[in-house]
């Protein structure tokens, strides 16, 4: 059985695939989707939910793409990672733990960048971006004879020179700084436990770019595809299949 896990943006990709979306359609979506409506900043959201964006449009769009499917509807074993502000612990959506949860709700919670998207209330929890606890969820995959492969998007930005910078420049760096030690620990532990972690360098792009150019999208896809294909070919079980 196929087993997937995802955090933040990875949770959206994993959820769409698990819901039945083909790889060709998923790629076309990545190349053409306009994220602007999903990340439309609102003064009302800032007052009502202490965030720049309510996240409602993103949730509705994910519900449409996944056809409202729940974890209990899946033939693929999917785990989506979020972070619970109430317990300050990792929260895992799965068929066993949250069978009645919609994939859209899980992905929306997992991708809730703190202060950018409003937290998601679910099952007595208040959930934000899974990267706050576990940005490399290869750790939740079953450890057995089947190779575990983790795709890790790694910023390789050059250091900034002293000066005054706007929020557009500083926000991604603040997020990277907050997650850095957490990510390093998980990557080291997953590697020690036998998982193969693929490092995809993405410093040329920003997750805050709502109007990403076609050239940048294509470069992201090409770098990710090539790096991952190389890693897959090096896995004995996959290479001989």
Count of individual helical segments: 8
Q: What portion of residues is helical?
A: 25-40%
Q: Which band does the percent of strand residues land in?
A: 15-25%
Briefly note the structural class of the backbone. Answer: alpha/beta
Number of strands: 7
Shape: globular
Main pleated sheet: 5 strands, mixed
Mean of residue pLDDT values: 86
Oligomer: single chain
| Low-pLDDT runs | none
Distance between the termini: 15 Å
Order of helical and strand elements: EHHHHEEHEEEHEHH
Radius of gyration: 18 Å
Describe this structure in words.
By secondary structure, the protein is α/β, with parallel strands linked by helices. 39% of the residues lie in helices and 16% in strands. The protein has helices at residues 9-18, 23-32, 43-49, 56-65, 103-110, 167-192, 214-233, 236-239, and strands spanning 3-7, 77-84, 89-93, 120-122, 125-129, 149-154, 196-201. The longest helix is centred in the C-terminal third of the chain and has 26 residues, at 167-192.
Index terms:
single chain; 241 residues; alpha/beta; five-stranded mixed sheet; two-stranded parallel ribbon; 8 helices; 39% helix
Short structural description:
The protein has 241 residues and is α/β, with parallel strands linked by helices. The protein has helices at residues 9-18, 23-32, 43-49, 56-65, 103-110, 167-192, 214-233, 236-239; strands at 3-7, 77-84, 89-93, 120-122, 125-129, 149-154, 196-201.
How are the SSEs ordered, and which strands pair?
Blueprint: E1 3-7, H1 9-18, H2 23-32, H3 43-49, H4 56-65, E2 77-84, E3 89-93, H5 103-110, E4 120-122, E5 125-129, E6 149-154, H6 167-192, E7 196-201, H7 214-233, H8 236-239
Parallel strand pairs: 1-2, 6-7
Antiparallel strand pairs: 2-3, 2-5, 4-5
Helix pairs in contact: 1-5, 2-7, 4-5
């Amino acid at each position: 059985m196929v087993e997937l896990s995802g955090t933040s943006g990875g949770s959206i990709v994993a959820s769409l695939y698990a819901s039945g979306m083909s790889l060709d359609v998923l790629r076309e979506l990545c190349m053409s989707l306009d994220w602007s409506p999903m990340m439309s900043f609102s003064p009302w959201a800032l007052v009502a939910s202490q965030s720049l964006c309510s996240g409602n449009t993103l949730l509705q769009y994910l519900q449409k793409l996944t056809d409202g499917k729940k974890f209990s509807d899946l033939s693929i074993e999917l785990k989506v990672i979020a972070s619970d502000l109430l317990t300050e612990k990792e929260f895992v959506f799965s068929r066993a733990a949250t069978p009645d949860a919609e994939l859209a709700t899980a992905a929306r919670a997992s991708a809730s960048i703190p202060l950018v998207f409003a937290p998601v209330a679910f099952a007595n929890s208040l959930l934000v971006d899974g990267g706050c606890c576990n940005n490399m969820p290869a750790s939740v995959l079953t450890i057995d004879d089947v190779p575990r492969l983790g795709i890790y998007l790694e910023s390789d930005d050059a250091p900034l020179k002293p000066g005054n910078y706007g929020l557009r420049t500083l926000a991604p760096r603040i997020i990277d700084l907050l997650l850095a030690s957490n990510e390093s620990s998980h990557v080291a532990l997953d590697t020690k436990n036998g998982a193969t972690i693929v490092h995809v360098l993405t410093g040329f792009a920003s997750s805050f770019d709502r109007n990403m150019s076609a050239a940048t999208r294509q470069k992201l896809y090409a770098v990710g595809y090539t790096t991952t294909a190389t890693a897959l070919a090096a896995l004995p079980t996959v290479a001989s299949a």
